[in-house]
Amino acid sequence: MGIAETFKALSDPQRRELLTFLRDGRLNAGELAEKLNITPAALSYHLKLLKKADLIMEYKEKNFVYYELNTSVFDEMIMWMKQFGGNE
Known about the structure:
By secondary structure, the protein is an alpha+beta fold. The protein is about 60% helix and about 15% strand.
């Protein structure tokens, strides 16, 4: 994961909304497309960028593909951003 890919993935409001949906647990592509009210092709594009940035993980179970947050990347981002914060 590179920091540029992470910020590129986070720059889009729909991708941020996808991450918000996944905060409560894993969902399959159909559930995500329905929640966002977007086409499967558009969802696929957003998921591809989120996977490239390692922000989400993909799991296959029978006929479904599930997605969930990769929380370790978020932990790394928080640590990286804290270095720019003020003294607490």
